[in-house]
Amino acid sequence: MSKNNLQNELYGPHVPDVEVSSASVTSLEARRILTKIDLRILPILALMAMIAFLDRVSIGNAAIFGLHQDLGLKGAQYNFALCIFFIPYILFEIPSNALLKRFKPHRFISFNVFMFALTTVLQGFVTNYHELLTTRFCLGLFECGLYPGCYYLIGMWYKRDECQKRITFFFVGAIISIAFGGLLASAIGKMEGFSGLRAWRWIFILEGSLTFVAAGLGYFLIPDFPEDITWLSPGEKEWVQNRLLEDVGESGIEQKSITIRDLKVLYKDYKFILGAIMYLSLATSIYSFAYFGPTILRGWDYSLTQSQLRGVPIAFVAWFVAMIVATVSDRFLHRYFFIFGSCICTIIGFIIIMTTHSHPRAQYASLFLIFSGVVTGIPLSVCYFQANLSGHTQRAIGSAFQVSVGNIGGAISTFLFMAKDAPYYVSGYTICIGFTVLALVSTTLYTAGIMRENRIRDEMQGGEGGVEEGEKQFRYVL
Questions:
Q1: Distance separating alpha carbons of residues 381 and 446, to the nearest angstrom
Q2: Does residue 105 contact residue 149 with C-beta atoms inside 8 Å?
Q3: What pLDDT, in 10s, does the model give residues 288-341?
Q4: Whole-angstrom Cα distance, residue 386 to residue 401?
Q5: How far is CA 314 from CA 56, 195, 324, in A?
Q6: Amino acid 356: pLDDT
Q7: For residues 458 and 455, what is the distance between their CA atoms, to the nearest angstrom?
Q8: What are phi and psi of 467, to 5 degrees?
Q9: Nearest Cα to Cα of residue 417 among 277, 280, 289, 306
């Protein structure tokens, strides 16, 4: 079955619509086209995010089902196994987005999902520390293109006042995976000894097998760029491209591939550095919870099953809060104060968890504040930065660079909650607070910088402020 045939089976055959243009489309027609685009893009990308994050953090669930003992892990070996994932993830983000442009999203993303599905299954058969390191490295290599690629793809379909809730919807697919992963792991835990395999091995094998299915769906359902797809009529495609042109600049492919020369923006433009620091600062906390959440809960004298299940409501509350904030943020086309608020929420949660050791209910409640804060803040910081990039090349480089540098926070998180610090983890929580403060500082500096640049361009161009990109005047948004 071809890609177009499967899409027709799921969405219905394409019927050519009345020709529309940016000058003639009505609000009703615009809503209809956007709904069509949403249904084609968001569910499948959110599924990819959920599957990828599930495979990435499944090792946290496996750890409490005997992985340490069976592989003979000692000292910080488990932490190094977590950390090595981020080495290829950090190094190959930008090359990955360059390949995405060349091979088209549906092919490139689904290939990567297939490969990290295979790697996840193979993790279920490792027999020693070095084999675990190898599979974790390969998992990072194949996953590195997914998140920046999807952020980039979303940014090339929607205007800046539409992006936040879409990016949040995509990102919270990863958060749902934490809830789903906990439920799945608690169920798989009952397979202990089935076919002679430990439960932690079944976690990798079954979750990796599920990912193979997602890879197949992704090949047929992931859309390409607006200028490449066939499920919009020529008039609808023209309307999509014209509205993006009016909003951020040229939506078409400016060049076939990214060159080394294009990368000079990374050291010439301070906004790229600050955008990456925003992501890095918040990623440290979310990865800490994703990897060590079950271990932290286990240290509060919950059973194996309870330590898995108690993470589920935390994830769902965070999803609900993040979607509400994203919708309001798009409504006002403003990000800064919402990021500020999410950081304050996170800091308050960490303070509570550090000062209520004899009150388990208060400690558990603090996890809702921490997780809701970072889950809300990360997609806000992504959209804030990427909404102020124009065109394919800047967005391809910028999305990859932000996630690449940002995932250094993930590498840092793998060493924050060492076994010797249990059960209070004072140093880990303190460092997370420090990074959240850094997120506040970097976001404030970024905001001050773009306000200053808008003001200068207003003065230079008679109130028509902007940045020249081709023939399009581009203005930064807060």
A1: 11
A2: yes
A3: 888 888 788 878 888 777 877 788 889 889 989 999 999 999 989 899 999 999
A4: 11
A5: 19, 34, 16
A6: 92
A7: 5
A8: -120, 130
A9: 289
Q: Is the peptide bond before 423 cis (omega within 30 degrees of 0)?
A: yes
Query: Using CB atoms within 10 A of its CB, is residue 32 exposed (0-12), middle (13-18) or buried (19+)?
Result: middle
> What mean pLDDT is predicted for residues 116-122?
96
What secondary structure does DSSP assign to 188-216, as a single string? HGGGTTGGG--HHHHHHHHHHHHHHHHHH
Shortest CA distance to 438 belongs to which of 319, 202, 279? 279
Which residue shows structure tokens 């104060």?
337
Residue count (the chain): 478
Three-point CA angle 213, 217, 220, nearest 5°? 150
pTM: predicted TM-score of the whole model, two decimal places: 0.82
Which run of H or E residues covers position 393?
helix 391-406
Q: How far apart are CA 241 and CA 275, in angstroms?
A: 26
Dmax over CA atoms of the chain, in Å, equals 75
Amino acid found at 284: T
The count of other CB atoms within 10 Å of the CB of residue 468 is 12
Candidates 52, 106, 105, 50; CA nearest to 219 is 106
Q: How far apart are the first and last CA of the chain?
A: 45
Phi, psi of 329 (to 5 degrees): -60, -45
Q: How far apart (Å, rounded) are the C-alpha atoms in residues 372 and 117?
A: 29
Q: 362-421, pLDDT tens digit by residue? A: 999 999 999 999 999 999 999 999 888 876 778 888 888 998 898 899 999 999 998 889
Q: What is the CA radius of gyration of the chain?
A: 22
Is residue 322 within 8 Å of residue 173, measured between CB atoms?
Answer: no
Q: Are 51 and 148 in contact (CB under 8 A)?
A: no
Rounded Cα distance, 201 and 204, in Å: 5
